[in-house]
Design a protein that fits this description.
Protein name: Putative transcriptional regulator
Distance between the termini: 15 Å
GO molecular function: DNA binding
Number of helices: 4
Structural class: mainly alpha
Radius of gyration: 10 Å
Number of strands: 0
Shape: globular
Number of domains: 1
Organism: Deinococcus metalli
């Protein structure tokens, strides 16, 4: 939801984080813990979404 509110596209965020869009979609749907992605991707997600994972 936050990504959409900030106007960041799924593809754009996935590319920046080095993740597959399908994986990012599953993260957003709560299918698994976002802390399980690699630290670099987590840092990008936190920075772009202005959140702490």
């Amino acid at each position: 939801m936050r990504r959409q509110l900030l106007g960041i596209g799924l593809e754009e965020l996935a590319r920046a984080a080095g993740l597959e869009p399908a994986l990012l979609r599953r993260l957003e749907q709560g299918e698994f813990d976002p802390r399980s992605v690699h630290l670099g991707a987590r840092a990008v997600l936190e920075r772009m979404l202005d959140i702490t994972l």
